[in-house]
Amino acid sequence: MTSNLEAQLLALQQEGEAAIAAATSLERLEELRVNYLGKKGQLGALLRSMGQMSAEERPKIGAIANTVKEALQNHLDQQRTALEAAQIQAQLEAETIDVTMPGIYRPQGRIHPLNGIIDRALDIFVGMGYTVAQGPEMETDYYNFESLNTPPDHPARDMQDTFYLPDGNLLRTHTSSVQIRYMEKEEPPIRIVAPGRVYRRDDVDATHSAVFHQIELLAIDEGLTFTDLKGTVKIFLQAMFGDLPIRFRASYFPFTEPSAEVDLQWNGRWLEVMGCGMVDPNVLKAVGYDPEIYTGFAAGFGVERFAMVLHQIDDIRRLYNSDLRFLQQF
Ligand code: DAH
User: pTM of the predicted model, to two decimals?
Assistant: First the structure.
């Protein structure tokens, strides 16, 4: 009985060691561990038959069973270490990168010159504490004209030939509409800069496009004066163009009073670069602000114009026809 059990234990050890040595995966190894040493494993099953043994036999068989268990456990541990090392090695080999292989050429993308100007301008204003605002490109007559002190019969409507939509709405002719939409929602103090597309029924030529971009500026607060407007515009133009002479020339816009156009001396010529002025009291009243308490200034300029001057582009259409030979220069 005893020697029989002893022989069975030693046979189990041999068989187990061979199976462990033959295991090629960690999953298989775990299966073997459960099979031999697990709660319902073979070693346990043999030991349960010890119950029938005499008191002298029991310690002897117990000792043998322990060495079998230890031996199997050792083999399992060693095989696991070996398999894990092999796995890492295989992974290293599979994931090796041949750094001498020729690469795949991917041409680098660029920022479009118009977006470049917009990014720079917004950066400058954000640096002065302005928030970026936006509004819809399809507008109502109210936001594009009426609220901006431009009633239906106002001659200034001729300054901007408008695309009307069948439903009576229109494509905004300027970003000034964003001023009203923003002021309706917010209370002073206000400092916003609003970039966006605008639309005009212009015949397309080297300097005109039916779709172009503007950036609008609006500041409303207690005690803002024309001096604040001049200083802001000056800092902005210096940051964009460098320290060149600028001048403010009296002009007219329905939504500002007084109004001015700003010229910049560029290559010996005065170039008109933006419109601006003190926000007309009628505009403040349209959004429910008290013009006795609040004043403000506004300005607007064309992004294409800036891009053409800064990059010496002779034809506005180059900015839209996606010719890579042109765009790659920027
Ligand atoms: N909206 C004007 C235009 O498109 C530009 C402009 C002029 C905007 C004066 C302003 C301003 O905010 O104060 O021609």
Answer: 0.71
